[in-house]
Write a structure and sequence with these properties.
Helix content is 90%, strand content 0%. It contains 3 helices and no strands.
Length: 89
């Protein structure tokens, strides 16, 4: 195993991790921004108002994107396991 090979596997792993986390993070960020604009306009400063919608939005996003996320991680894992004999040499 060369250092370049290890770096390429690490790069692929980081890319997959980012690709899987971006939809959930963007959904949480969009809901958080919407709630903060709502709070600024109405001057309601309730702390639970920020957390509950974010939690619900993240759960909904997980339900929506779970099939795609599972397919992506399975494809990456299958690629790693398929190429495992060539990695060992």
């Amino acid at each position: 195993m060369t250092p370049e090979f290890v770096v390429s596997i690490g790069k692929g792993t980081i890319e997959v991790a980012l690709m899987l986390s971006v939809p959930i993070l963007l959904c949480g960020m969009a809901v958080g921004l919407t709630v903060s604009i709502f709070q600024a306009v109405t001057q309601i400063q309730e702390m639970t108002l920020t957390f509950v919608p974010k939690i619900i939005a993240v759960f909904v996003a997980l339900l929506v994107f779970s099939a795609w996320m599972l397919q992506t991680i399975l494809r990456f894992t299958a690629e790693i396991f398929t190429n495992l004999p060539s990695y060992i040499r």
